[in-house]
Each structure stands twice: as structure tokens, then as C-alpha cells.
Amino acid sequence: MNETRLPRHRALHWFPRHNALLFAWVFVSACLLPTTEASGQVDTVDQLTYPPLADVQIPQPQRIVLDNGLVVFLLEDHELPIMQASLRIRTGSRLEPADKVGVAALTGTVMRSGGTTALTGDQLDDYLESKAASIETGIGVASGSASMTCLSEDFHKVLPVFGEVVRRPRFAQDKLTIAKHQVIAGIVRQNDDPNEIASREFTKLVYGQDSPYARVETYATINNISRQDLIDWHAKYYHPNRMILGLVGDFQTEEALRLVKEVFGTWPNGNEWTEPVVPYNTATSHGVYYVKKNDMTQAKILIGHLGLTRKHPDYYPVVIINQILSGSYGARLFSTIRSKKGLAYDVHGGIGFGWDYPATANFSMSTKTKTTQAGIDALLDEVHKIMNTEPPTEDEILKAKASLLNSFVFSVDSPSKVLGKFLTYEYFGYPSDWLIRFRNGIERVTLEQVRKAAHTRIKPEQFVILVVGPREGTAPALARYETVTELDISIPESS
Fold it and tell me: Would you list the domain boundaries of the chain?
């Protein structure tokens, strides 16, 4: 049916005359209102006042331990008809033998892609697609993981399939072959990205060339891995008493727990054994290192040493230091090296934290090759300032605290985020109230604590200085050092 449209100037006549008069009266009245303090008007930003932030209400999941040792966390969330399951497994690539680096990641990949003893990988894909569900598995440096998402109405059907993936993976040979080809393709490209090169080589320099935290896959280690290695890895580490399961979503706790017991409760636990000590350098020796990459127009600079864990006594003061250094665009590194000196678009720095082993402390930037020397000097200068000549000020600390505390809510703004944190705390042996401790710890940090930590936790005498870039552009900057070690990043051929 054709619709008759009025011309725009005539359409205005449809606005009732008495409404137009009322609108005009309200507008004029609003303009004539006095701009007093009572109306909330101020002359400067400093005069603005804000009500105190409301306390963040953090939901507490229910924790239950099954008879076979499986730890289960349950957190109801009825906002959407969705169920999520997350599993943490006590394993990790740091436990790999040196001649089979990559076996952990391959195990995590093929657990899912290879299917189960009941369903092939392709059949599993089809089933999950029909249910609008997903199941994923993987193994990282310090832990293994498995996750599941489905509609609440399908939870009783999808959870048993999830259990089969975790308990009875098929480890299909054809899927392992595909996964190995993908890893090998990554090895071929491992020297394409200068950021990846810098991160990889810096990690080796800090943790030690032979540390499991620094090892990388090679053609030889991948070719050493067989299907039986994946089966053996799974048999060694995948037991209920080495796992933590979290459920969040639209469910009733009693019914969900009953289903969990049906799927996982009959799984016998494994033998108790002590986790091996994973070696790494506890301190680094000062040195300057160079990686030649002539297809770059910039130089990538990384400076640093071993970092800390979150259990370190100076954790909270160092969190403040990191915020002051590069927590925002107004932070020291950004405002000086980026804005004032114009040496880099992206610059970062701080002391990293690991959960059960130290992360790295590093200061990094990319800069034009001709300003490589100025870039190194600028990073070292900012370190010297925060340690000695320009220590953190009271105002900087107050702003850092406000930023951290105001943004805290975004780390717990969904039940799934909260549950993920509880799983992490359980896995690494942190107290369940770590979230609350974090807020209180940040609030209580003093000026003296921050200045002391800045002076003692950054160790220039242990600095590793790594430069990745073209030889012609970076040579002048490196010439001033008495000793520069050039790193060989060539990819070893397959035997």
C-alpha cells in the first residue's frame, strides 16, 4: 500500500500548539535557573565532589570436594539461560622432557580435535553444533584447561560429553598429524615478528636457556612426539584429585552437583606425588645482547630481569609502581618517552608477577633505528628517576590507588569472572579472600613502602639489555658497549 508522506514543513504543524508553548516555557525557565552550588555548578574541576563508591558485592561460589578428590565450585547466575564449566588440571608444559617440548600443547589440542572413544572429532563437532554448544581444551605453561558452554536446557546432555572429552580422549592419529603440521608451520614463521623474537629471546636470557620456562618447540622435539606420548601424558596428569571444576550459570546447585557426581564421581583418583621443582635462574647477570633482523625499519628494545610472584611482601607497593610507570597515558613512561621526547608510540614498563613462579620485570619500546641509543637511555633514565632522583610522589600514589580501586569493579563485574578467579586461587594455593585482600592491600600502601620498593625491587645491576633490529641502524647505539653478545636465532634443521 502506498503511504502518503507530508512535506517536512507541514509535518511540524502536527505538533500541538499547547505542547509547543509548554516546551518553550520549560526551556526558558531552565535557562533562568540560578547557577549556585546547590545546583551542582562549579567553576573548576578541582571543586567537583563525588559520593563514596558503594561497596562491591562479590558473589561467593560454593566449594565442595568429591570423594575422589575433585574440587568443585558452583555459582548460580540466572540472568541468562546459559551454563559454563571450567576445569583446571595440574599439568603444564614446564613438566615436559627436554627432548619432547610441545607434547603438552599437542595433548591439549588433540584431546578436543581427536574426539572421544565414543565420538570421533568430526562427530563431536557436529553434535556440539547441533546444540549450539562448545567444548575447548588446552595446556599452557603452568596448567591445563578444559571449558564447556551450553544452553541450560542441554546441560544434562552436554556435561557427559564434556566428561568424555576429559576422561576418555581418542587421540586420533590423523588429528595429531594435523596438529603437528600446525606447530611446524609456526616454527617456520617464528622469526617473522620482531616482538615475538624479542619476547622469546628475552625469556631465555632471564630464566636461562635450558629452563622449562624458556624452552620452545623445534622440528626435532615435535618429530619425537608420538600418539603414545599423548596417551601417557594424559594418563599421568589427568586424575580427579588433580583437577578443579567450576560451574557458573542458570542452574540449581543440588541438581548440578548431582550431574557432576554422575559424570566425574566414578572416576578413581590417581596416586599422590610431589610436583617436581622447575629450574630457572634466580638472578641474571648484566649484559647487552643483539639480534640481527635487517628487514625492520625500527629497533625493538627490551630491558629487565627476573620479576616477582604475587605472594611477595612488596606485591602491593610494586603494583602501585607499575601503575605510576605505565598504567595510563598520563603515566611516566608515556608522558616522557612518548609525549615529550617522541621516541616511541608504544612504551611499557614494570615488574611482572607470576602466580607460583616469578614473571619478568621489563621495560620495552620500539623506536626508529637512528634513535636506538636515545631509546635505551630514556628507559634507563626513567628507571633511575623512580628509584632515586624522582621517587614516587604522594600525588602519584593517590592517583594510582584511585585508578586501581575504581577499576577493580571491572574485574568482578560478572559471575564468570569471579568464578575464574576462585579457580585460580584454588589452583595456586592462594586464600579464597584474595580479592578482598587486594583492595585492602592497595588502600593501605604508604609512600615510604612504595619508595622503598622502587629503590630495591628494580635492579639495574642485573639488567639484560636486548636490541632487535637492522645492523646498520642499530650499530652506533651498540658500539658504546664494551661487550655485545649477538644471539643466533636461526632455526635448527630437522634431523
Answer: 62-264, 287-486
29-43, 149-163, 415-429, range with the lowest pLDDT: 29-43
Confidence of residue 13 (pLDDT cuts 50, 70, 90): very low
pLDDT at position 120 is 98
CATH of domain 287-486: 3.30.830.10
Measure Cα distances from 391 to 321, 386, 397, 452 in Å: 10, 4, 11, 9
Pairing of strands 360-368, 287-292: unpaired
| Amino acid 395: pLDDT | 96
**Res 288 pLDDT > 50:** yes
CB count in 10 Å sphere of residue 381: 15
Homologous superfamily in CATH for domain 62-264: Metalloenzyme, LuxS/M16 peptidase-like (3.30.830.10)
The whole-number average pLDDT for the span 231-245 is 97
Phi-psi region of 366 (alpha: psi -120 to 50; beta: other; left: phi over 0): beta
Q: What does the pLDDT read at residue 11?
A: 37
52-96 pLDDT, tens digit per residue, is 666 778 899 999 999 999 999 999 999 999 999 999 999 999 999
Q: How many CA atoms lie within 13 A of 87 on its CB side?
A: 29
Say if 62-264 and 287-486 have the same CATH topology.
yes
> Which pLDDT score is estimated for 274?
85
